Amino acid sequence: MNDPRKPPESEANGYAKIDQYNPAAVERMAEHVHSMLSELGEDPGREGLVKTPERVAKALQFLTHGYSVDPALILRSAMFREEYQQMVIVREIEVYSLCEHHMLPFFGKAHVAYIPNGHIVGLSKIPRVVDAFARRLQVQERLTMDIRNCIEETLKPLGVAVVIEAQHMCMVMRGVQKQHSIATTSAFTGEFNSEKTRAEFMRLITSGTRA
Length: 211
Ligand SMILES: [Zn+2]
Known about the structure:
Elements: H1 23-39, H2 52-63, H3 71-76, E1 79-81, E2 88-99, E3 105-115, E4 119-121, H4 125-134, E5 137-138, H5 140-155, E6 159-168, H6 169-172, E7 183-188, H7 195-206
Parallel strand pairs: 2-5
Antiparallel strand pairs: 1-4, 2-3, 3-6, 6-7
Helix pairs in contact: 1-2, 4-5
This protein binds zinc ion.
């Protein structure tokens, strides 16, 4: 029996191999994409489209590979005891996600901060946590809270702040077609609920200075 608490080797550090597709799922999804092409009035048999169903199926598996990644495990793999108790900020993390209403991309920047309470985490892990949640079907509001909650529950810091600014293709390309509108969401815990700390964070992420 496999020990369910012990992930397989490839996931031991929170990674799942994202270039490994599930062939059975690819085949089934490709059949649906083939039907969709016909429904759209296309000829799925024409040269340029012959391999499209398989490509779409693989692309969708890649774009949702966050389901097979454990973000808390990513953090736990690089947590260190440290007495530093000042704000740690990782700014302008690229975000690429799919809205769950249209399965169209939304993308932009995330800014994440925390104030350590005995533990810090390797800085490169923060963007990977963002990615683990972004590479799923999402709404921007929940993505923001998922990231906040994961850091809060795993690192147990004095506070967490997450701000995401994103453009949604379902707004830009269809519907209201407002091409330059950006949605901003934010989520805070602990010390970031104090006006002073939050204001400092907001100043630092908008100041344009590179620390
Ligand atoms: Zn949408």
